Design the sequence.
């Protein structure tokens, strides 16, 4: 990720205290496991085998927090960069 990309972020991203979190990507009636590497109030970086490309919308489920609607904004070797479409008031804690 470039420094320019980091400067465009609206919210800072943070890792989890105990390392990446396991989660589930839900698209329609299908679901795939995922690993959430970092998160912010506006999005996350995750790795999954779900067949998602930029523009795809899905539900992200991670234990202990309500499901959140998300959209893929980039897909590269680091994983999927997603933005939460529930709005910036959503807080992943």
Sequence:
């Amino acid at each position: 990720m470039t420094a320019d990309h980091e400067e465009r972020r609206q919210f800072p991203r943070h890792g989890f205290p105990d390392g990446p979190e396991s989660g589930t990507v839900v698209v329609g009636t299908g679901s795939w496991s995922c690993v959430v590497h970092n998160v912010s109030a506006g999005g996350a970086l995750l790795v999954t085998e779900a067949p998602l490309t930029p523009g795809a919308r899905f539900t992200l489920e991670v234990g202990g927090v309500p499901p959140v609607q998300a959209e893929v904004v980039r897909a590269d070797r680091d994983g999927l960069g997603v933005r939460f479409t529930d709005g910036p008031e959503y807080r992943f804690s």
User: Anything to note?
Assistant: The beta strands are 21-27, 30-39, 43-48, 57-62, 68-76, 79-84. Residues 3-84 form a domain with the Thrombin, subunit H fold (CATH 2.40.10.220).
